[in-house]
């Protein structure tokens, strides 16, 4: 059912999952100090070459947009294609927006922030999702969604303000679906830095709560 980008379960369409397929879960919660919206796609068995390549290219798009440095007052639609480029390279695409504003204990989808033509220019302090995907009808769906904060970027010239994203979702990606041969050295460096942040922030909290099984999973999932 993940091939439907915004599928909702029902008694008529729900079925038992197997370890021989991909599983997409779009999850989040409302808290007094913020709203979360995170999507991960996993495969518990042996993914097909197409599934692995498609997932990796979705991840490449997520990384490329997340690490992008761009001028202030840039509209999201101007940079949105960075999330699609790795898919476009092989003739793949997805039919939904690349991201949306996220409220602070408000709407999960909050306008006017985002990457579509009618969204306002990005400014420091805005929260947006970054969520490229790929969907093959009747077979599988892939989406990787993180929440990112728009922040000022440190540039070499320092002549005028530039912006970038700081990803605040700290959840590992599925190593079983990543084809490292497709990733650039810069993308691999980004992944390793991201995993270091996850270990530094989430690891101690899991230990504090004595969630040792979760801690062991986290360490394994964030190896360089």
TrEMBL record:
GO molecular function, one term: aminopeptidase activity
Leader sequence residues: none
Keywords associated with the record: Aminopeptidase, Hydrolase, Protease
Pfam families hit by this protein: Peptidase_M24, Peptidase_M24_C
Peptidase M24 domain segment(s): 1-151
Chain coiled-coil ranges: none
Record-linked InterPro entries: Creatinase/aminopeptidase-like (IPR036005), Pept_M24 (IPR000994), Peptidase_M24_C (IPR032416), X-Pro_aminopeptidase_P (IPR050422)
Record domain Peptidase M24 C-terminal: where: 161-224
Similarity comment: family membership: Belongs to the peptidase M24B family.
PANTHER family per UniProt: XAA-PRO AMINOPEPTIDASE 1 (PTHR43763), XAA-PRO AMINOPEPTIDASE 2 (PTHR43763:SF4)
Descriptive protein name: XPP2 aminopeptidase
Provenance organism: Pycnonotus jocosus (Red-whiskered bulbul)
UniProt lineage: Eukaryota, Metazoa, Chordata, Craniata, Vertebrata
Gene behind the chain: Xpnpep2_1
């Amino acid at each position: 059912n993940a091939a439907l980008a915004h599928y909702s379960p029902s008694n008529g369409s729900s079925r038992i999952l197997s370890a021989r397929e991909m599983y997409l879960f779009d999850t989040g919660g409302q808290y007094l100090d913020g709203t979360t919206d995170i999507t991960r796609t996993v495969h518990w068995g042996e993914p097909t070459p197409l599934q692995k390549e498609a997932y990796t290219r979705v991840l490449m798009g997520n990384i490329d947009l997340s690490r992008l440095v761009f001028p202030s007052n840039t509209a999201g639609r101007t940079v949105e294609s960075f999330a699609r480029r790795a898919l476009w390279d092989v003739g793949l695409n997805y039919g939904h927006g690349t991201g949306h504003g996220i409220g602070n204990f408000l709407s999960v989808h909050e306008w006017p922030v985002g990457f579509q033509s009618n969204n306002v220019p990005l400014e420091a302090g805005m929260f947006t999702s970054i969520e490229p995907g790929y969907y093959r009808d009747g077979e599988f769906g892939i989406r990787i969604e993180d929440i990112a904060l728009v922040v000022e970027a440190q540039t070499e010239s320092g002549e005028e303000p530039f912006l970038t994203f700081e990803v605040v979702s700290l959840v590992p990606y599925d190593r079983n679906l990543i084809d490292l041969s497709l990733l650039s050295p810069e993308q691999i460096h980004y992944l390793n830095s991201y995993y270091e942040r996850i270990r530094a922030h989430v690891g101690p909290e899991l230990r504090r709560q004595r969630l040792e099984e979760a801690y062991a999973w986290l360490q394994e999932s964030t190896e360089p």
